[in-house]
Amino acid sequence: MMTENTPSSEDFVDRYSRQIMYEPIGAGGQRKLAGARVLLVGCGALGTNLAQTLVRAGVGYLRICDRDYIERNNLQRQQLFDEDDLALNLPKAVAATKKLRRMNPSVTVEAEVVDVNHRNIERLAEGADLLLDGTDNFEARYLINDLAVKTERPWIYGAVIGASGLVMPIIPGETPCLRCVFDHAPPAELNPTCDTAGVIGPAVSIVAGFQAVEAMKLLSGKADALNRHLMSIDVWTGRVVNLNVDASHAEGACACCEQRDFSYLDGRAVSSIDALCGRNAVQVQPGDNRTINFTAMAEKLGPVVDGEVSHNTYLLKARVGDYALTLFADGRAIVQGTDNVDTAKSLYAKYFGA
Predict the structure, then answer these.
(1) What is the pLDDT of the chain when averaged over all its residues?
(2) What residue ranges define each of the domains in the chain, with the CATH number in brackets?
């Protein structure tokens, strides 16, 4: 049955003619794309690229979830945004949705301005055939992984930093899950972010492109064509390596897909964030157990914070704009200068890694 967003047969063939001509997709695959529903978590660098590619490709429904707003430094790599969006002070999900609807009116695009967490991800993913990773931290990825494994839905992991990136399609029950390969997140001081190590636009586009093509394989009914490896990409050197990670699944020790321990989805392994009464400060406690190497963290933060980074045996202090950041040896941090938990969480993720 036709909906208000469904193109006529003539429009359908005309819009997607070059994609239909590509034999592995064809008319049948294009119709499957048109009937597919996708949840995209994160609408930053990878997310904007993924969203644009899938909407132009004719995926039937896309729900975009993001908690953040647009900043000027986003414009270098987040391709859906421009100066007008910045002036309007729009949330990323809203600005992206407006652009995407104009690109392809036959696709239903919905925006959710929300911090995706263990309390809401099942509702946000309702009806989705595929989960897409446009996030920038391991806690969010482990949450997506828990949901995917529990509900037996595929998802596509992607990460990019500097000029390097990783891509891996995950099919629960068939391939290793994320926690098979990375059973724990890297230590915070060894886990760079775009805000501490930078990122170049071509790396984002290429990583997102590989994510998107794996998504199109799945959604068009061509799962047999998936690249079932962990792809490691360095666009600066031109190096691309497909890593066989099957052994990590064969060992059978994965807490998630073998032991069915969904600690991120259950809320047992998530960050605790509390506003500190009367102090204009928020405390962020990571969900995993970690010990901070202050010397390595100070070297990581030095080039990107305001002034010097000071530390001793017990804590590290740094300043970013109006915010004073204090990091403790167990990974706990106090963000001084705000009582907004979302702001504190964002600063923690940017500078300490989440």
Answers:
(1) 91
(2) 9-250 (3.40.50.720), 272-352 (3.30.310)
